[in-house]
Amino acid sequence: MSGANALEVHNLVVRHDMLTAVRGLSFALPVGGRMGLVGESGSGKTLTALALMGLLPMGWQADGSVLHDGVDLIRQSDRALAHRRGRTISMVFQDPLSSLDPVRRVGYQVSSVIRRHMKTSRREAERQTIELFRQMSLPRPEQLVRAYPHEISGGQRQRIMIAMALACYPQLIIADEPTTALDVTVQKQVLRLLNGAVEQRGCALLMITHDLPIIAAMCDTVAVMYAGRIVEMGPVGQVFRSPRHHYTRGLLESQPTMDNIALDGSSRLTSIPGMVPPLHSLPTGCAFHPRCAAATEKCVAEVPTLEGGTRRAACWHPVESMAEAAAS
Amino acid sequence: MTTHTNAPLPTNEAMRPILEMRQVTQTYTLARQKLFEARPTLTVLDHIDFDVRPGEAVGLVGESGSGKTTLTRILTGMEQPREGHVLFDGRDVWTAEPSHRQLFRRSVQVVMQNPRSSLDPRMRLGASLLEPLRSLRIEGDHAARVYQVLDQVGLSRNALERFPHEFSGGQLQRIAIARALMSGPKVLIADEPVSALDVSIQAQVLNLLKDLVRDLGLALVFIAHDLSVVAYTTSRVSVMSAGRIVEIGKPLDLFTHPKAEATRNLVGAILTVESGLAGNALA
Ligand SMILES: Nc1ncnc2c1ncn2[C@@H]1O[C@H](COP(=O)(O)OP(=O)(O)OP(=O)(O)O)[C@@H](O)[C@H]1O
Ligand SMILES: Nc1ncnc2c1ncn2[C@@H]1O[C@H](COP(=O)(O)OP(=O)(O)O)[C@@H](O)[C@H]1O
Ligand code: SF4
Ligand SMILES: [Mg+2]
Ligand SMILES: [Mg+2]
């Protein structure tokens, strides 16, 4: 394990009886780095995150290796993992209401995490909690710590979850769709706060979302996931400006842009035909082939591999970049 | 992958509105805070004027709690407004005779945000599609109507035997649209129809809604809190804030010259891949 990585994942497989939801994921996230994991619902993002945190639901099993802070998380006991969660690695979930305890005051929930991991006094933990709330631009922090989760808005709850995730200065934060449940106007504010806090503390971020603009704004690298595999990865500017996998290109073209809007309702969006395949009937070869206009027999028969340097795509017939197309 | 650009959507200025709201105010009475105190009232819609014409797609945007869903409930007749009028085809639906009310009920249909919760999980799709014909007591060749609607939304006939859990979110939203079309409506109201869907599927559903406006001459009211999605789908947008319509304009004008503060906030909230890559989107 190289000391320069906050997380190194080798050939992660997540399965449940006969169903395999994550089919061999490998990536490395450098210390202080920010990686986006993007894909449509059902592509295996949440199960990946839960496997990394040791929080898989009953009946699911992870194989491969997940190196973090000098240990393989997959081979750690439940107790060792529980001790680590919130301290060296923490997670922000999509739905803050279900991850906060409804019968305890929000301030207590944050300060007890600080006390447990940092061994500080109760008063010191309370002081740090108020300070964290202030950093998250929460209104009237001294009073808000006394509120119960149902008494505050969704955007405020999500900021409290972020405060809790940051409380012990973790090396790595995993955020799974942290703003998907929020109103657009609140979304940007929460992202801005998360972005600033991660930057200030220098912790690594694994940002999981189906929202490409969020990855573009927050990450330096991106991995695109489809049907349990990474199909393309690389620096975010390169992947989004000149995608090589046809799925990545399809996702990018499905986004409404200023050009669409400028037509005052008369333009059409490009869409990817069909849908994400269910786990029990994954296509052979490149799993995207039933939806891909460039698919050939080779795509149906053989799984394309993800090889190369920092910029990789698992595709037999990669999208030509503008420059290449012009040259040929 | 399919792309085509079509002629601009008509604004149909010449036609008269098929569905209209005039000076609608809606208030709710809240629980008393203290004994002997008057029960406080909350004004959720405040003197709203709103209309849509045949073959026109109009948008309604606003932050959470601004009153969009309340407006939907009043436009569809699920709720009666405290003040003001709802007119279908020029006549007040709350004072007209029962036959006009019945026509209004058939002619104004809704598609909601979450297709999974709007379809009965125990019913095969075929039965779900017939249900509105039954509840609205519509006569005629029901089987032929089902096939016609399946064609309009691009679903195959073998879908009829299947249950909701066998479909993806995007397909279910298509099915929910099909169900809304069964009674042959003139107006379709879509309240956040794509916010629960993935990007690739969002585009399919948005394109379908636009096709229905163009091909069937439907009037579409498209509601969302994401201005970019609304701007893409409609040719005229109303911006709501705290129960009032604070600005009306063409999508491009709202983006380039937003006047109301609420519009500026909604424009400012939009993140695109381009703005994200430019590096200052969250500054
Ligand atoms: N039956 C009711 N009784 C009391 N208050 C209500 C009722 N229905 C809605 N409200 C209030 O009216 C306001 C507008 O609600 P509405 O659901 O119309 O908002 P919206 O714009 O659709 O929001 P969102 O984007 O979150 O769906 C909110 O403050 C809501 O709490
Ligand atoms: N608890 C579960 N039981 C059965 N199947 C599940 C469970 N959780 C996830 N899955 C399936 O595993 C696949 C990946 O799911 P998930 O990781 O939640 O995807 P994403 O987060 O990318 O939407 C999906 O096909 C989903 O239906
Ligand atoms: S491998 Fe084949 S099917 Fe898959 S994306 Fe590339 S061209 Fe399309
Ligand atoms: Mg998920
Ligand atoms: Mg609503």
Automatic annotation (TrEMBL), chain A:
Keywords: ATP-binding, Cell membrane, Membrane, Nucleotide-binding, Transport. It is found in: Cell inner membrane. It comes from the Bacteria. InterPro entries: AAA+_ATPase, ABC_Ni/Peptide_Import, ABC_transporter-like_ATP-bd, ABC_transporter-like_CS, Oligopep_ABC_C, P-loop_NTPase. Residues 7-252 form the ABC transporter domain. The keyword Transport applies. GO terms for molecular function: ATP binding. The keyword Transport applies. It is a peripheral membrane protein. NCBIfam families: oligo_HPY (TIGR01727). Belongs to the ABC transporter superfamily. This is Peptide/nickel transport system ATP-binding protein. It comes from Kaistia dalseonensis.
From TrEMBL, chain B:
CDD domains: ABC_NikE_OppD_transporters. Keywords: ATP-binding, Nucleotide-binding, Transport. One of its GO terms (molecular function) is ATP binding. The keyword 4Fe-4S does not apply. It comes from the Bacteria. It holds the Pfam family ABC_tran. Belongs to the ABC transporter superfamily. This is Peptide/nickel transport system ATP-binding protein. It comes from Kaistia dalseonensis.
